[in-house]
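Lecture 7 notes: from sequence to structure.

We start with a single chain of 77 residues. Read the sequence below before looking at the structure.
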Amino acid sequence: MTSAPLLVTEDMAAAYTGRPGATIRRWAHEGRITRHGHGRGNVRYNLWELPQKTADELTGQTLLGPPPPLPAQRDAA
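Now the structure, written as tokens:
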């Protein structure tokens, strides 16, 4: 059973992952994550597809999760 998508804005997705909005848009363009909607200010991303940033308990340093995988039909550049 899959859970319903939790749709968030680009800014929220960037804050959740610790990466810039351009990276979120690139992931969507590459097919790594699903883009919902179109047009400026109307695009949303499924939070469940995004890697969450974490913080190291000792240093407080932000740790980034691995990027979402490429779709099977695409190869990395």
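The chain has a mean pLDDT of 90. Keep this in mind for problem set 3.
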